[in-house]
Amino acid sequence: MSSARQELLRLLAVKSFRLGEFKLSSGGTSDYYVDCRTTTLDARGSQLTGNVFLEEIRKHGWRPQAIGGLTMGADPVVVAVAVTSGEIHGFLVRKADKQHGTGQRIEGFREKGARVVIVDDVCTTGASTIQAIEAAREFGFEIAGVMCLVEREEAKGRRSVEKAAAPAPFVSIFTAADVRREHLRQKQKDETSPPIFAVAATCELCGRPAATNMPRNRCEVHRT
Fold first, then answer.
1. Which residues contact 118 (CB under 8 A, 6 or more apart)?
2. Which of 24, 122, 144, 204 is most buried, with most CB under 10 Å away?
3. pLDDT one-digit tens code per residue, 167-218
4. Residues 43, 115: one domain?
5. Domain tally, the chain
6. Could you read off the pLDDT of 162-181 as tens digits, one per residue?
7. What is the domain range of residue 182?
């Protein structure tokens, strides 16, 4: 795993992953939730997102003219890749046709026949990714590939996305299981880290700087 990919996984685990009981937009429930936007809209997270997606696009040799997806989960991913590449344009797909002005559903890059990559932040049932695929093809784009940042495998959306995307391949950067493992690893690491003092403390026995406050303030000499 590249250093950028590993760092992005760590950020997702720390900033975007939560354990608990959550109701999903699909109507189901889950014992975890992944809000990728807290990572993709983070300053460093945005840089990493752009680098990792661009790395994957180049690895597959897709050579797209543009990248886009359904607003708003795809928005920060699209911008990150466009800025990082300096050559791949961006477009956004509205959830419904615009009711005023030009009435267009595709915003940004609009060149019929262009090769594009469809992106999403999280794929659960795949519904939002499929909407973007259908809208892009209806407009006249040629889809080279489809990507998501995190795939929730238990929702079994992959089959539906692959069917809609065919013959273009569908690639996920991480699975939710990847992010969960890293989340638990980081949590365990935090729990075993030495305590950090919020205020200066001294050893209660000798007055030296304290090295621990568990269970009492003690210096290195008297900590055991």
1. 67, 68, 69, 129, 132, 133, 136, 143, 145, 146, 147, 165
2. 122
3. 999 999 999 999 999 999 998 887 776 655 544 577 777 777 777 776 677 7
4. yes
5. 2
6. 999 999 999 999 999 999 99
7. 3-188
